[in-house]
Design goal:
Blueprint (H helix, E strand, L loop, with lengths): L1 H25 L4 E11 L8 H6 L6 H13 L2 H11 L1 H6 L22 H11 E6 L4 E8 L2 H59 L4 H29 L8 H25 L7 H36 L4 E7 L12 H30 L1
Antiparallel strand pairs: 1-3, 1-4, 2-3
Helix pairs in contact: 1-11, 3-7, 7-10, 8-9
Length: 369
């Protein structure tokens, strides 16, 4: 039993020495280069109409959405394939730059070490880091590579392609919005023309341009006739005191008064309604509704046209600018692996396993005794 414990001690000591040797002398040292960028949306500086504010997304969460979209794309197979053409990740992750225990190979049947597309993409994403800082609205893009210069070049290319793809996504979204607005513009134009035609039919049917004008003109005439009627009555009563009612002058006044009274009744009848026709106030209500609908449809159509023209401009405009706050630089020293931390971790794990095995041996020995 003592020999077994001695063998186990030697085994664990050997494992620890080999692990330390691997960590300090074999494991690939990777240099990290990083860049801090900020997404600037030029459309936030442009004024938008009321309709535009409904169609455009709120800017409060748009920056985070752009950052999440950027992170997804940078870690996607599309970005990997673009960078692979320039930096040959396939050769890098299966070549001598990576230590034998971390590199991929076609000759190894183990799933995690086989040189497959999925494992290459996994290695790429493990070396890549994209972190969004909400308070400062910035994104930190970093990449770890065995070559410090290549690490810097990769981060520069990621930043360059990210700016292009953001505008590409934005243009695709804008084209979708443009297609929607073009359909909406045709629909609103049809509604506007329909309202205009309905109003014209109403005007032709009732022989009026605007009942409001008719009422105002009739009210003005009515006021003038009533004023004239008062004057004629005063004149008639005044002259009746010294003239005979059968005289020609008095009869003329009576006829004038009678004519004015009939005219007043006729105008009042037209205002109040009569002869089986719709009342003028009802006509005014109908006209007001038609006119209000026309004005509303016209306003909506004009707002749609404005938004359509704004969107047409945005299609050919780079709205998203990726501003580089901090440029990548060549790292002076490696950042991975953290040799001290990894050594301590190996020591703790091996000590824990050794303690468990020692306890099991003691229990077995006590059981035999």
């Amino acid at each position: 039993m003592n020999i077994l414990k001695y063998v186990i001690k030697l085994l664990f000591l050997g494992l620890f020495v080999l692990s330390i040797y691997y960590i300090f002398f074999i494991e690939t040292e990777k240099y990290e280069s990083q860049s801090i960028v900020m997404i600037k949306d030029l459309s936030e500086e442009q004024s938008s109409s009321a309709l535009g504010s409904l169609l455009m997304a709120g800017t409060s969460s748009e920056s985070m959405t752009d950052a999440m979209l950027l992170e997804v794309y940078v870690k996607s197979s599309d970005m990997f394939e673009i960078l692979d053409k320039e930096f040959n990740f396939t050769e890098y992750y299966s070549g001598d730059d990576i230590d034998i225990f971390s590199r991929l190979s076609d000759s190894i049947a183990l799933p995690f070490y086989s040189e497959t597309y999925e494992n290459l993409l996994l290695k790429y994403t493990n070396d890549l880091s994209v972190v969004y800082n909400e308070p400062s609205n910035t994104i930190k893009i970093s990449f770890a590579h065995a070559n410090a210069q290549i690490s810097k070049n990769i981060v520069e290319k990621i930043t360059e392609y990210s700016a292009e793809i953001l505008n590409q996504f934005e243009k695709e979204n804008t084209e979708v919005a443009l297609s929607f607005l073009e359909k909406l513009e045709r629909k609103k134009h049809a509604l506007f023309i329909s309202s205009l035609e309905t109003l014209l039919v109403y005007q032709n049917k009732h022989n009026t341009i605007d009942p409001t004008i008719d009422i105002k003109s009739k009210s003005t005439i009515l006021g003038g006739l009533e004023s004239e009627l008062i004057q004629k009555n005063v004149e008639y009563n005044s002259k009746s005191q010294y003239l005979n009612k059968s005289t020609a002058e008095m009869k003329l006044l009576e006829r004038n008064i009678s004519y004015i009274q009939k005219s007043i009744k006729e105008i009042r009848r037209k205002i109040a309604g009569g002869d089986g026709k719709a009342k003028l106030n009802v006509s005014l209500s109908d006209f007001s509704l038609l006119k209000s609908k026309l004005e509303f449809d016209k306003e909506v159509y004009m707002q749609t046209l404005i938004k359509l023209e704004e969107t047409k401009v945005l299609v050919n405009q780079n709205r998203k600018n990726l501003i580089v706050v901090s440029h990548p630089r060549i790292a002076d020293s490696y950042i991975y692996p953290n040799k001290i931390k990894d050594s301590v971790s190996v020591l703790i794990v091996l000590s824990f396993i050794y303690g468990i095995l020692s306890l099991i041996i003691v229990i077995i020995k006590d059981h035999k005794d």
